[in-house]
Amino acid sequence: MTDTAVQAAPFDLEKIRADFPVLKQMVHGKPLVYLDNAATTQKPWAVIDRVHKFDSEEYGTVRRGAYFLSEGSTRMYDEARKKVAGLLGTPDPNEIIFTSGTTQAINLVAHSFGKAFVKEGDEIIISNIEHHANTVPWQVCCEERGAKLKVIPVNDRGELILEEYEKLLNPRTKIVAVNHVSNALGTVNPIRQIIEMAHKVGARVLIDGAQSTPHMQLDVKALDCDFYTFSGHKMYGPSGIGGLYGRMELLKEMPPYVTGGDMIQQVTIEKTTYNPPPSRFEAGTPPISQVIGLGAAVDYLQGLGLDKIADYEHSLLEYGTRKLSEIPEIRIIGTAREKASILSFVSDVIHPHDVVTLLDQDGIACRGGHHCAQPTMQRYQVPATTRASVSFYNKYEELDALAESLRKAIKLFS
Ligand code: PMP
Predict the structure, then answer these.
(1) Strand order in 227-231's β-sheet?
(2) Model confidence pLDDT, tens digit, residues 340-391
(3) What are the sequence ranges of the domains in the chain?
């Protein structure tokens, strides 16, 4: 039975859960317990219905046709850009560039900012707890431009060591790229401080927001960051859509990443001139329905309130941490003082891949693996972890079910 001391959800949880049709189902005869929200989130009817209505009644191409359907689509597409701008905290929607997600957004910056601003002998800083999407593009950028990649170390709790970060910064640092929330550990990084310190040496900052945008209120202007990325499929929206906030003065200086139709001012055989941002970075027909769906997801999140979401999820995370800490065979990896949504753990008794298979038998969906963060796994000398990640639609009882199923799995292997 769940403790009575926990904070009740600040909204009608059963009503919220009814918004997500997938949550109703049984898996292997047990009610589905969906705890893989860091990998991807489920969609509410508001998103499903919006995309369905758009595709069945309103669909047309954007930016081109001067006819009813196309004009309507273009208007809705622009409206969705405004919604995302509002969510991230910029008054200028042209600072939002749609991409397929965080991976493509970081590649865009690494390639385009790299080409415009990174020279031989320059330095780029990442951290030891980045997703591969915020590691590999910078390695490639360094290789191509003759720059050097430096890494902020972490302590045993999974917190960036800011004294070491300070030592890495110097006038050759061109960009610092760190996540807001680590997908492998759940650490919430002190990005305001990280940004301030980088700006003091004239470096720019990219924040990988894949794991923060669904969980907390953001304000890119107050944070004063230069780039901030997001993925629609982790924000209760469709997959295949996400993007980038970029400071306009920088975007204007950056060359296109992908070229082709829709991003040009004029093309002759000899020369092409490009549109200003965001169009310059959105070559080709965009994922129109996905953008409309993302707009509906933003409305849904804002309807619930990001502060309320953060509060309740924090309470769920603390509860889950307590439940798992009571199991002696389990060790939590990532015990930072500031954490969001993610509980990563290992056991000497049973491998994460076996854990997730056994959890699945009880209808519980968790992720087992390196979470696309192999350098993080290397730092903590584990090949993989099991990761449970919560959303506002989860219940305390589901964390009880997780703990109970884990005890059963451990007993089986002991
Ligand atoms: N960064 C982080 C912190 C992530 O968690 C993820 C997704 N697991 C990514 C980047 C990549 O996002 P996407 O696959 O949506 O491009």
Answers:
(1) 96-99, 242-246, 227-231, 204-208, 173-179, 123-127, 148-152
(2) 999 999 999 999 999 999 999 999 999 999 999 999 999 999 999 999 999 9
(3) 13-31+305-413, 48-303
Question: How far, in Å, from the CA of 342 to the mean position of ligand 1?
Answer: 14
d(CA 96, CA 394): 30
Integer Cα distance of 108 and 151 in angstroms? 21
Atom from ligand 1 closest to the CA of residue 103: 16
Interatomic CA distance for residues 132 and 374, integer angstroms: 8
- In angstroms, what is the span from residue 206 Cα to ligand 1's centroid? 14
d(CA 214, CA 41): 9
* Cβ–Cβ < 8 Å for 320, 2: no
| Residue range 272-293, pLDDT digits in tens | 999 999 999 999 999 999 999 9
Which helix (H) or strand (E) element contains residue 324? Answer: helix 306-325
CATH node for 48-303: 3.40.640.10
Helix (H/G/I), strand (E/B), else coil: 388: strand
Active site residue 225: no
Please count the residues of the chain.
Answer: 414
Fold of 13-31+305-413: Aspartate Aminotransferase, domain 1 (3.90.1150)
